[in-house]
Every structure is written in structure tokens, then in C-alpha cells.
Amino acid sequence: MQSDSPVTAFKGVGPALAKKLEKLRLYRVEDVLFLLPLRYEDRTQLVKMGALAAGTRCLVSGEVLLCETVYRGRRNLLVRLADGSGQLTLRFFHFSRQQKAQFQVGRHVTCFGEARRGAGGFEMIHPEYRILRENQDAVTSDSLTAIYPATEGVQQGRLRSLTDQALRHMEEAPPAELLPAEITKKLGMPTLAEAIVYLHRPPPDADIEKMLAGKHPCQQRLAFEELLAHYLSLRNLRALAESEDAIALTAGNEDVSGFIADLPFELTNAQKRVVAEICSDLEQAHPMMRLIQGDVGSGKTVVAAIACIKAIACGVQTAIMAPTEILAEQHWRNFAVWLRPLGIEPAWLSGSQRAAARKESLAAIADGRAQVIVGTHALFQEGVEFKRLAFVVIDEQHRFGVHQRMALRDKGVSAAGHPHQLVMTATPIPRTLALAAYADLDTSVIDELPPGRQPVATIAVPETRRAEIIDRVRSACEAGHQAYWVCPLIEESEVLDYQAAEASFEMLAEALPDIRIGLVHGRMRPVEKERAMSAFKEGLIQLLVATTVIEVGVDVPRASLMIIENAERMGLSQMHQLRGRVGRGHLQSHCVLLYKPPLGHIAKERLTVLRNTNDGFVVAQRDLELRGPGELLGTRQTGLPDYRIANLVRNADLMPQVQLTAELLRSTSDHRSAAIIRRWLGDAGRYGKV
Ligand code: ADP
Ligand code: MG
Fold first, then answer.
1. pLDDT digits (tens, 9 = 90+) for 24-74
2. Is the shortest distance between the CB of 300 and ligand 1 below 6 Å?
3. Rounded distance, CA 631 to CA 620, Å?
4. How far apart are alpha carbons 478 and 439 in whole angstroms?
5. Ligand 1 centroid – CA 304 distance (Å)
6. Fold matches, 49-140 and 457-613
7. Is the CB of 584 within 6 Å of ligand 1?
8. In this structure, which ligand is nearest to the CA of 298?
9. Going by CATH, does the domain composed of 457-613 fall within 1.25.10.10?
10. By CB count within 10 A, which of 125, 302, 463, 592 is most buried?
């Protein structure tokens, strides 16, 4: 058996079981060492029956006083044990005759289970038990008992046997220690082998509290190495980009200045700084990989457009990708307004396009007539051939994964090199998390809103005061403003009891007969959605009832009132995004968080955060603390990997050291970095090329 042998190398594991083990991500022998227990049980010492505490799981041993079957509605087997300090009753609902026969009066039994208070003293229901032989002592374990995440067809006993085998094998062939000794020494971390043994078979005096909180040095040792593996892999991706060629977009600086001078507004200092950073990147003969982080409304789109002007002047194509049709279409319109005076018509590509229009777009993209192409995921699908794609802009990057980003980039790979990439996100994330998530990117931050913006005044109101809020919508619309009314789901769901957008629409239409109301939701056909959105933009609709499809990017400066229903169920960052739909013009804007009381602790905390701040970074930090990074960045679709052991909230404080270690390993082009990546990410590496 080798560390990298398939799990079938274990005794008792055939192909069928190996298949089941895949669910636990156990493919190779070594993987078993990294399957950490969920919790631990203490079977290292016997608890006296006289000292039992209700609700604790413990090991006891005693002599059988009595064994009887009773009928209390159903058949029960009761076994009364005593150990000199007190008594305990074992209760079984399912049992065989042989089982009953084992419990002979006078025999000694050791059992493990949860002590509960019953009518006649303490009980254990269906405990694990062992009947002792004559003169045999109670069996205690040397270490705390690990409880593993089991899965269908793979029980605790099996996992214990596998970890036993893997740990035994590890004694003969310890896993290579891949962290530099200076680091483990500086951080006071145990070796990898020590950490693994400790976590699987902790000594009786181990600090279980600390282990359950994930804060034990042994857990941190493993988390550290895992974070390091991911970080190194992203840095390799970055190094790869640095070694690749790209078309140096050196021309166009006058066009850029001219364009900026002709804008109807002055760029903020933050925008100017970021524009300069991007333009300097684009002039390099290596692909740019830059992320712009900027709160909602900070003006990222125009920054992308400016970069696009430079690309046009250099005679190459630019593709702009957005995650939804509505958002992509809005960019397309904005770009058209900005570029038309220069004689450039941006092309459009989306999944819902009619065949003829699509064909036309594809032809223009392929022969180079289309210099700027705006669209959705459709941009990187098969059949899209660019003539000379050298610059790729991806908006709301948190909606796409690394893979999608790479797919669009690959469209632009040619003899002349790789395209420059600019990704933008309105979900600012705390620095430690950004380090882990975007280590392959340079980061620019637009940390300033255009002048004249007033913070959105936010209040939380119980839905019992709905009528008041409807009045408020009426007066806002009568004063010539516009409003959004956002509901979380489309169809009435019995389970979740959401307020459906359609139901709200009807309710509002009835309550506000003189107001022009529209509806957008995810189940509508794209054309219908767009019709409603543009009617709202043009002011034909005063009140837009919507699901969270409007969450990202939509820009209607005259909208100044946002009502969010079922606010108690929505995520913090999501509500911040929604709130960012208002407060985009000069009007004082308001956001009403309508909730269904009573509020739970976390929901209350979320609403408080939103009431107290408009700063996306503060919101993101609190959201991270309240929920965890997966949800913050929008699960699945994030570029963020699934970690086996590390947890970015709990282990965020390790990131600065992870970064240092990575740079240390990289600066000496240490062979260990490849081995670390292989150990944690598998041979292929998660990002294709590691
Ligand atoms: P986001 O960063 O959320 O994508 P947008 O790019 O949609 O923000 O910009 C929001 C609005 O602010 C748009 O109407 C845009 O034209 C406008 N805007 C951008 N920059 C400035 C600026 N420097 N001064 C005034 N308005 C600006
Ligand atoms: Mg935007």
C-alpha cells in the first residue's frame, strides 16, 4: 500500500465501497488521513452511575440486576444495571430473543450512550454495549473516539477501520513534511504527522472544546497547508499569465483623454487612479489580470468603457460579459451611448437572441467588424469565433467561477497571445478573503462614490405596518419619483411562506389604482423582462415589483424608494446590493426593510447592520462573520473552492502567514510547492493548470 494507492488498497474495500467513499472525497489512501472527525466521544474512562448527568454521552459499566420485557403501548426490553454507586436502565424497542438472553443476571456489561432522565432514574435508549466475559475488565479506549462524517453505506465502524489502517501505514511511511521548518517553528505548529494522529486519535486530556471550535493548533496546521495549496495554485495561474504574451495596447492615450473630457461628469479620484492602473497594465506585453472592487454605484462601468476606448484605438476587439440579460443589455445601451459619437456600434450576443440576429452578430465578431461585443455567458460558448479579441471585461465577477472566466479568456488566445482581463465586482470582500479568493489577480479599489450621492436612509418595519408603507410608495410616485418593491421568490411556497411577487403585484395594483405598476421576475421570458425594465427606466412604470433578478447592476437614477419584503430571510450582502439600486441620482433615497416578526437573532443583526451603514466593506465583513464566505460570494458560482478542512471565516487570520509562506516557497522555486498543491488539490489541480 502506498499513500497514493487507490482506496481499494485498504483491507475490506472493493470497487463498490470505493464508489461510496467517493462521496466523502476519499479516492486515495492518503485522503483518509485528511477526513477529519466531526466530533469526539469520550470512552477513555468509565462514568459512575451515581455521577451521571442528563444529556451527556458516556461510558458506564455494571452488573445486570434485572432483565424484563414490558408492554407500554409497545414492547420494551428493560435491563437494569448497577455499579455500586447507582443504577441505570437500558431500554430497547427493537431486540431479538437472543439479545434478551445475553443479559443474564449477574453478568457485567459495558455500554456507551446518552444518559437521560426516565421515570425510574437514568436510562440509555439503544446504547452500544458489550457483555463482558467472566472476570473481564470493562474496556476503555486509550484515546477519544473520533466520529466521522458518515455517508450512505459507510458507517462509523468502517471509517474507524480505514483510519486505523491509514494511520498504521503512516507510521511506516510518514507523509512528507512540506512546510518550511522556519515557518512551523515560528508559528509553533506541530508537524503534519503529529497533527494527523492527534486529530484522529486525541489523547484523553485533549481540549475538546477547542477542537470543536476548529481552533486547535493541530487543526490550524492542516488548515494552513490547505489554504497554502489553494493560494499557491492561484499564484501559479498568475505566474503563468505573466509568462504569456499579450498584445501591448500602447496607442490610444489621446482618445482616452478626449473621451474623459467629453463625459457629462468628472471622474472621481478613485476612478482616475484605477483608469491609470488599467491603462498601464494594458500597455504591457503580458496579459493584465486585474480585479476592480467597488461598492454599488461607485461607477465601475465607465472605467471599463474608458479601457475599451484604448483597446479600440489599438485595433483589437473587446468583449464585455455580464451575468444576466438585464445587466448585459444595460451595458450594451450605455456603451452604445458612449461609443456612437466615435462611430462605433457595439455588437450584442445573448442566449435568447433570435437566430438571424445571432448569425449577424457572430459574423461581425468573426470578421472583426464588431469591435466591442457585449453579452452574457453566450460569449464564451461554442461557435463564437473572435477575429482579434485582446481585451475581456467581466462584470459582477462573483457570479462567475474561475472556469468561466478562463473559458472566455481562451476565446482570445491566438498567435499574438492571451487577452487582457478586467473583472469587476460590487461585492467588496474583506482583505483576508480577497487574498484567498483572488490571489491570481491584481486588485484595484474604487473607494469613493461620485459626488452628490446621499447615503440611502434605511429603516426596518414589521409587516403589520404594511399599509403605511404602501402610502409612502403612493406619495413618492405622486411626487414624480419611482420605487422598487422586491420580493424573494416567485411562486407562493407553502414551506417557506414567501410573499410571492405576483401576489404582491396584485395586492399593490389594488391598493394603488392610480399608480402605473410593472412586474419583473425570473420566470418571465427575457423579452418581457426587458420590456418591463425599459418601461421602468423610461418612467412609464412608476412602481416596479420584482424578484431579486434586479439585484445586480440595474441603473435607474430616478428611483428613490426601495421596499424589500421578507427582509428577515434575505442575506446581508444581497440586501445591500438591492439597496444599491436606489440612491444613484441626487435624490435623497430610502430603503424600507419589511420583515415578519418575530425576528431571530441573526436576522435582527442583519437589519441593524443595514440601518447603521451604507459602506459595502463593512456590510461584507459583517456578512462574513454572520454567514461564512460561501454565501457571501454566492455559493457554487464563486471562484472560491470547497475546502476540506480550512474555513475562511475561522481561519482568516492565517492568510497573512499563508501568503508569506507562499512567497517564500516561490522565491526559492521550491519543489515543495508543487507537492503541496498535489496533496490538497489532486494531480490535475483544481484550476486546470497548476
Ligand atoms: P457600479 O459601480 O455599481 O457598476 P455604475 O457604473 O452603474 O456603478 O454607475 C452608477 C451611475 O453613476 C451611472 O449612472 C454612472 O453613469 C454614474 N457615474 C459614474 N461615475 C460618475 C462620476 N464620476 N460622477 C457622476 N456620476 C457617475
Ligand atoms: Mg455595475
1. 888 889 889 999 998 899 999 999 999 999 998 999 999 999 999 998 888
2. yes
3. 11
4. 50
5. 11
6. no
7. yes
8. 1
9. no
10. 592
